[in-house]
Structure formats: C-alpha cells, structure tokens
Sequence to fold (306 residues):
Amino acid sequence: MRQCRQCAAPAAIHMRQHRLAFCAAHFPAWVVKQTSRTIRSHRMFGHSERVLVAVSGGKDSLALWDVLLELGYQADGLYIDLGIDAGDAYSATSRHKAAAFAAARPDTRLIIVDIAACYGETLAEVARRKRDIQRPCAICGLIKRHEMNRVTLEEGYPVLATGHNLDDEAATLLGNVLYWQSGYLRRQWPVLPADETGLARKVKPFHRFYERETAAYALIRGIDYIHAECPHAVGASSIAHKQTLNQMEHAKPGTKMQFYINFLRAKKEGLFVPFEDEQITLNTCAQCGQSTTAEARCTFCRLWEV
Ligand code: Q46
Ligand code: ZN
Ligand code: ZN
Fold:
C-alpha cells in the first residue's frame, strides 16, 4: 500500500508520472499549490485582476473555479448554455451544476449566456439548418470562443481561464501533429495574450494536471459536477486520441506528460516559431465588432443568417 508523501497515511491517489502519492486530506492542498505555481511561472494573472472562469458544469472547470477561490482570487464563472438535449437534458443539467456551485459561494457571480435566447436557435438547431455543417461539434467551438471573448471584454475581465487539463492538451497536440496543423501548433500554449485585434487573454492553469487528478480533487472536495459526456461527443476524434494516449501511458507511465510538456519546452527553444512573413489580414466584423479574416461579417455572425 502506497503512503501519503506528507503524513504516511494510506494514499488516496498515486501519481506514477511524478512518483508521488497523497492521502485524501493532503491531496487538495498539493493541487492548490501546484496551480499557484503554474499561474506564477506563466504569469497568467495577478491577485489584483478579476478572473472569469469558463465553466461547463464538469469536473475540470468547477475544480479550477474552486482552486482559484481557495487561492484568494476574485474569480467569477461564465456558463454558455448551448441548449444541448439528446433526450438527456445535458445542458440543463450542467447549467444546474454550475449554478448550484455558484449559489453555495455567495461572493462569486455566475454569468449565464443562453444561446437560444440570445440568437434564436440552439446549437443543434443552427447545425441542422446549415447544410454544410455535418455535426454540432463543427461549430460548437466557434460559438463558445466567440461568446467567451465577447463576455470577457464586455464585462471588463482582464483574463479568461479555462479548465483544460493535460489529457485535453495532449489529445489536441496529438491531433495537431497527426495532421501537421502548423498554424494550431504555433498557437498551442497555456497562455494566449490579449492582442490589439480584440482577443481577450486566455489561460489554462490546469494544463499540467492529468484528468484523473482533477477528478480526484473534485471528488475529495465534494464538488457536484456533471459526470455524463456531451451526447455529441460520441465518435469524436479527441476521445480516440485520449484513449490512444492512455494506452501508451499505461504501458509507460509519464508518456502523456512527456509528450505535452516536452512540446512546450521545444516551443520555448524555438520550434514552431511564426514565419516572419506570416501576415494575416484581419478585419472588424460589421455586426459584432470582433476581429475576423472574413471581409464583412464574421463566421459566428453569419451562422445566424437565415
Ligand atoms: S460540447 Fe460541443 Fe464538445 Fe458537445 S457539441 Fe461537440 S464540441 S462534444 S467539447
Ligand atoms: Zn496525508
Ligand atoms: Zn461578428
């Protein structure tokens, strides 16, 4: 039986990639401390800055919100209700989890954006109407990114934090490498600075944690989160990539971490630097005012054209 590094009690979690184990009493403090180190080492934000956390009702984002509050940050939540319901009331349930988390912490605020109420259609409805869109996932990221950026800027938050963990980042990296998506590889980083084109600063303070660690944190802290996957996730390539990486991790503990962390190191050393002549012309969307490569209206605004 493994013992806790701190108190020698039986361990509740063993992180083979770190050769580290903790009991349930000492693991949450380790997560909080590691997150604080990550925030500082990547200069993600300071204590005087208000942070907006994008919450999905899942374990990672609610755990992140909890950790930021534990660290004394002024952290609020943003929930984007896409109206997903494949007979399972997925959005309604996840929205309820996010709202319950916020209600139990009176000093925080949860901003809810209801896509159908704002734009007239749910994610599935707009995807069905647009013939060239094969599945809701094809536009889900676009809608979430647009709305996260809009609310962050409109509500005056200097930074937006997302709950992406190492499993998410490693799966994204594997997908980017498999198809040599050089543009995405150049941009993949735990901090994306705000820029003059109107993009808010985005940070991923959990990018060094395995998914099982954020799940263990949520469980030990008694955070009530939605366990179900989004019903549209069935067959998603990101899930296949996660499974592949988990098989490799099982055969050789630490593989997943090395794959991603060494990528970050290689980038720091100059791999995937932007081409000097890489000039993208950006215009301002005539409707929403966000930056776009399109001539007049951005892809997001064109989604709602009937
Ligand atoms: S939420 Fe959206 Fe995922 Fe659901 S519709 Fe697809 S992309 S699977 S992260
Ligand atoms: Zn202990
Ligand atoms: Zn627009």
In short: The radius of gyration is 20 Å. Residues 233 and 239 are 8 Å apart (CA to CA). Strands lie at 13-15, 20-22, 50-54, 74-81, 110-114, 159-161, 191-192, 201-203, 283-284, 291-292.
